[in-house]
Amino acid sequence: MQLPDPNDAPMDALLRRSWHPVAIADSVSHEPTAVTLLGEKLVLFRASDSTVTAFHDVCVHRGAALSLGWRDGDCLVCPFHGWRYDGSGQAVGIPSQPDRPIPAKAALTACHTREHVGLIWVALDDPVAPLPEFPEHDDPAFRSIVCPPYDWDCHALRRLENFLDFAHFAWVHPGTLGDPEHPEVPPHEVWSEDDEIRIRQPRPEPRNDDVKTGDLSEEAEFTDDGRVMTVMHYRAYPPLAAQLRQELPDGREYVVFIAPSPVDEHTTRTFWHVTRNYALDQPDADFIQFQVDVVAQDRPIVESQRPERIPPEITAELHVGDDKVSLAWRRLLAELGQRALAADRPRVV
Ligand code: FES
Ligand SMILES: [Fe+2]
Fold it and tell me: Which residue, by CA, sits nearest to atom 1 of ligand 1?
């Protein structure tokens, strides 16, 4: 088993100080839900006011897993001795000694928890960056599908970087996103803005009438070999979220939002949405299946990458000109990692 790079303290700090999705919001009922983030076991509890809070999945009494417990009224009940905790994590009942005061220290450790774009997000330590923006999710002109997450045996940073890698389309996605006859990466602009990486790239793509290019008008533009001209707009939010908004002909916009969640050092659960402003009466399954097919092509490649974690030293891997997106991405990650590490250090006064 490969251990985390001991020199990657900045990345460790950044991952703990970042928002990560841990569950689809609709899947979190009022019963406790067990999840794992960065190797730490957590329990999600939706209180009677619908607010969800993530606690470390450890009862402060004898360490039993609260996710094995249940809800009773407004309280989360431990399965071992029945201690009752309210939505803030404070113990409010010890059944074995109902007439004695409850120790003030009898409280669960809560994590930062938010519900955002249909997902439950958790930060283990004070986050250094806001939740990622996804404006199309709440735009009534769009239909946004919260898709079932999928697990890969890889580090989450490798999975996210794969989403920003343009040179692999011809080889990994022939016929869906790329064409082996055209392996060259189309020119693109890359810049950083408000701690995000942004990219704009006009890109021809094989025609896919089932999900993107059916019933086009005569205004649509094609290459000589029949590929359709599109424009890709990426926003990448360090460390682990990104969205692609693809401008298709006739005002169509197709958006993929992904947030690979670092379950542990070797497991990534990718939460994702597919969002569109056209063909709103077409079955969602067509759009989901297209992405399922695409990521099935990516999976064996990303799971094979070594070292599993992106090396902290930029020079540890070889970069060529068309890796400028991942270079910009890695530099921004390094900068934010230093910021997170500085936030970890106790202030000297
Ligand atoms: S271990 Fe939870 S109540 Fe005793
Ligand atoms: Fe891919």
Answer: 62
